[in-house]
């Protein structure tokens, strides 16, 4: 069927599902470092006052993690057989009425609290009208006039600076969080020129979050969304998987010269990972910059991101101006939220009401607090805490390793963020799929701490543990004969051999060049395949070269 | 037997004077005999007999479910009935069969009441005559009464009068004795108006007291399921069953009191009856005015305080009503797009073409007109000017009532309609919008304010047709309102169409028996 009047926002519902193994939870601080665009978060150069900068705002739809839909009792499931979870209300059968799901309200309120929003004690629902095949009622119930939460702020960080190791902290304002219904899905079968409709998703609760245009580039937007994703996941209010459409992000992008009014904006849709979000925004900023530099005008239009080409392309726009003809939803009384039990009016049961005090008490440790705790508890660098928290499951992994070892956390962090994460990235695995379990890594580190193996041998053992999951470190050390050579006689013999065969180096050391001693140590390690106890070796070599 | 009240029949069951199956068969026969009234869109004969047999079994075992067990009832065709088609008298839903029962229907079925069928109406309840439905107009049973035939000077069959609407089928069903109880819906007077014109008792409860779940909406913020019966106490029984919180309708409120029997000897001595002066509207017939005065006098003579009161914003009510009605209609009708259910056009070259032709073919002019104007009122540039303004006026109208009731008035007495029933021929000279504006003038303020209101049949006009008066009470004072209504009912001795039990099959026209002619106490 012709899609000539596809309202642009509906197209976001047609996001093609990408295979689930494409992880959206990438460590964007690494991946988007390829970004061509320099973020204006760097101090602007004084010599170029006329430089155009990007202005980015986001509209985010977060699917509420709940058992049932926003206004009906049908269950919420991903990948259920088509139209298997559709109540009479979801299919908009005449005479059916919405009944608000308290769980969804609590999720929105908790999210609002976590994002430092003002929670409206009284909010209302509105109908937003448009005709589309997967919107069976002809309107969406949303919160246009008075949303449940307003005026919040999200603090996010990313690794910036010259070496991309400096934690940059920024704020983005949250204009509002509103509750609304998701639509169904349309499947256009061009061959038979028909449209198939799946209403499983119709009526699922969404939180629409509007982030003000406080960002300037893809990297910032990506960092803000990643932080939001972590917060939602910590709260359990949204699973936050972009590729499964649980989190849908549209970007409003414009360019202007600082100090001047904002430029005409475009809305970029069809973005299904954080990486693509950054790329789409950066592309769009560059495109608009080029348009303006040419003396052209940016059109107020909706553009779709094409992940294959990395470009945004104009979507067939809404025919004329879409007037959604908002009106109050007459079948739902105002949504009331109360401070605590004492503020409940007569006749309202505490068990039925949404109480702020109760929800505040239920707020879990949020990512920023986690990072601070990691820095304080383990003496980690901020960038390490950042990596631990931003990578799904890495903090838990780290803390589990710490439980099993007495090693300095700052040593352990190197293992986790370099050895472990490196291999995971190489093989595109998530932390939960690591073949080496935290306890096994802890055991290895303990062996190293006890002086049983050298650090270079430990790395070899780790590689082997990765290849043969389940094999204990000790077993590998024995099998590969990687145990530390600490027998003084053996070491004396090997050191003597090295000293004898490198008289020039010995001379250099003797003449005061202590750096050459390290070279000799390296030669000894080469002889012992890295198994020699470095402390002993140094002592012996110093003795022999003195 | 068919002319009895629900309460009387219930007693007859228990005394074994008649059985539910016998009564059901009688009603079904009568539906056939009165087919020309066009009161029913669907007659559920098989289902009715099955229920009647079940009811009979319960009676025989001595375990009837209550006063409604075995009682034949009818339901306006905009209430969903599981596995029974529900058309809203529209081509759009001509073949639509809902998979569930409206809460009010379910509650009656749970009480053992026997569903006779689905009654005719104006399409999607948009009208005040029951003349604008896809299944043709409903004829007022009084068109064939002796009183109208002799006094009204009806010369030919084409002089039949309308039932009023939009619940005309339900009112006709109760007036013509094919059901003891009928559900209507009341958005601007759709239950009270036909109640008055058909000479039956009609109740529009307080908004929120009775669940709207399963009622195909006209205006969600004003719709209330209405109750049509032959006596006030019957309506009280029905309301007792229907009222209360429904988890499926978030606008329902708890019933303030259990409603069983109304006191037979309610004393009006201590009540204050308000007569709103703004209801002396242009077009009010002399006869209706006379009945209004007569009943006011009845109250006064019985010791009630009768006071003139003012509801100053009444004149704006009908315009306000139309703006709000049309906007909600525009919204509520959006779901009828031919995709999930209902009529679907053969023109399918694109989704948009299918939408447009489906909706053009499925809706009549009245519905389409309201959708058009409603969407106009909701446009961004018009919203403040029309919708918001209308809502403000709505508040003012509700405040008018609040002030009056706050000043000590217990109940307002007004006409229900301007005149007695019009001839179909005359009625259809005007367009639907004009007629609705005229007909709803006394009734829709109660919907705007969400108040309980009833229409009580008072007397016959010179044409031999019923005249009704309206009583309006404060929110949730439905029981008191019914008590006052019963007091009036007991004193006016409204005649009933008497041939309900007439065994002379040859005699087609119902006659009128005056139980006891009185003009005053």
Automatic annotation (TrEMBL), chain A:
Keywords, in A-Z order: ATP-binding, Ligase, Mitochondrion, Nucleotide-binding, Protein biosynthesis
One Pfam family this sequence matches: GatB_Yqey
UniProt keyword Ribonucleoprotein, yes or no: no
EC number assigned by the record: 6.3.5.-
A GO CC term assigned to this protein in UniProt: glutamyl-tRNA(Gln) amidotransferase complex
Catalytic reaction equation(s): L-glutamyl-tRNA(Gln) + L-glutamine + ATP + H2O = L-glutaminyl-tRNA(Gln) + L-glutamate + ADP + phosphate + H(+); L-aspartyl-tRNA(Asn) + L-glutamine + ATP + H2O = L-asparaginyl-tRNA(Asn) + L-glutamate + ADP + phosphate + 2 H(+)
Location (main, coarse): mitochondrion
BP GO terms, sorted: glutaminyl-tRNAGln biosynthesis via transamidation; mitochondrial translation
Family, similarity comment: Belongs to the GatB/GatE family. GatB subfamily.
Subunit text: Heterotrimer of A, B and C subunits.
Name of the protein in its database record: Glutamyl-tRNA(Gln) amidotransferase subunit B, mitochondrial
Designated gene of the protein: GATB
TrEMBL record, chain B:
The keyword Acetylation appears for this protein: no
Compositional bias ranges of the Basic and acidic residues kind: 504-521
Primary residence: mitochondrion
Its EC number(s): 6.3.5.7
Top enzyme class: ligase
Alphabetically ordered keywords of this record: ATP-binding, Ligase, Mitochondrion, Nucleotide-binding, Protein biosynthesis
InterPro entries: Amidase, Amidase_dom, AS_sf, GatA
Start and end residues of each Amidase domain: 22-482
GO terms assigned for molecular function: ATP binding; glutaminyl-tRNA synthase (glutamine-hydrolyzing) activity
Region annotation (Disordered) ranges: 498-521
Subcellular location: Mitochondrion
Active site, UniProt feature: 76 (charge relay system), 166 (charge relay system), 190 (acyl-ester intermediate)
Any one Gene Ontology cellular component term annotated for this protein: glutamyl-tRNA(Gln) amidotransferase complex
Family: Belongs to the amidase family. GatA subfamily.
Subunit structure: Subunit of the heterotrimeric GatCAB amidotransferase (AdT) complex, composed of A (QRSL1), B (GATB) and C (GATC) subunits.
Function: Allows the formation of correctly charged Gln-tRNA(Gln) through the transamidation of misacylated Glu-tRNA(Gln) in the mitochondria. The reaction takes place in the presence of glutamine and ATP through an activated gamma-phospho-Glu-tRNA(Gln).
Name of the protein in question: Glutamyl-tRNA(Gln) amidotransferase subunit A, mitochondrial
